[in-house]
Amino acid sequence: MTTIDKSKPVLVTGANGYVASWLVKKLLDEGITVHAAVRDPNNVKKISHLKEVASKSMGEIKFFAGDLMKPDSYKAAMEGCALVYHTASPFSLDIKDPQAELIAPAVNGTANVLNTAKEVSSVRRIVVTSSCAAIYTDAIDSVNAPEGKITEEVWNTTASLDYQPYSYSKTLAEKKAWELEKSQSQWDLVTINMSLVLGPALNLGNTTSESINILKMLGGGELKMGAPKMGLGVVDVRDVAEAHYKAGFTPEAKGRYITSAYDTNLLEISKILLPKYGKKFPLPKRAMPKWLLMLVGPLANKLFTRKYIKNNVNIPFHADNSKIKKELGIKFIPLKKTMEDSFQMMIDEGIFKSK
């Protein structure tokens, strides 16, 4: 058991990210001092939302520079911290060089942060933002898992540099984290394994989250002829922040935590939005047939390879989230609220125009 002293500062790497911004808000609201590590602390545009959150909270924020690819670049930010949240990691599906753009920053970044923690004597716990992608690649993997659902015991064995390299990067990065945890006894490690994160962004103008791109596909008309019934898990970004917070400050927290609220698919999440937004926006109302996707998918989107379509479309996704509910007491926000808050944010920011 590890009890974290709330009077000590807490480090958050990649602090201005989509998930990390909500985590920083939670920590500040609890009156905690946050050491916010970002790529460029002088880029006012990238951190202004965090400064605004801090101005309305009981906590204090201090900004530090941090680069995933530079050993010891987080050392200054980590000094004096008992708790470290390592959230910084690339999340992009449209990449040219998987090794350079995904694998290297994910694995080396994790190694750099955790190796630095071996040198900073104040550190007692590290919470790493991992992903369900470190557990599975395609929906078919959850069908093939024991009892037809993924659990914390399962590891991704189907991703590679050539197929779903993002999932491969998350698998290698998390394995590196557990390898480094075993090499020392100063601090313990907890991982948050998230499914697709949706919900409003505090940093919408600057976020590069793939989650926002999925919302754009749904509301922007790209899928108005039909959405693939692509099995996936969804969780609200505010619940993910809460899960990180509790993983850090619950003394008994240990191991991996699947952080996925609902087993659903792309068409189902669109249908949730139809009653409120269907008349004004070109939301998909029907399923796109799998055979049609097989024909046009690879032409329309290079991510939609025939293998990907075969393994995900019309395939259910199932994840067991009982551990996080039992051990961390997480109660998930209703999917309807997550989707409506996400969509309304896109409208308010002028990203969606009504038809």
TrEMBL record:
What name has this protein been given in UniProt?
A: NAD-dependent epimerase/dehydratase
> Where are the membrane-spanning stretches?
none
Q: Residue limits of the NAD-dependent epimerase/dehydratase domain? A: 10-250
Q: Which UniProt keywords apply?
A: Oxidoreductase
Listed Gene3D superfamilies: NAD(P)-binding Rossmann-like Domain
On whether Oxidoreductase is a keyword of this UniProt record, the answer is yes
Query: Which GO molecular function terms does the record list?
Result: oxidoreductase activity, acting on the CH-OH group of donors, NAD or NADP as acceptor
- The organism encoding this protein is Cyclobacterium marinum (strain ATCC 25205 / DSM 745 / LMG 13164 / NCIMB 1802)
Q: Does the keyword Oxidoreductase apply?
A: yes
What superkingdom heads the lineage?
Bacteria
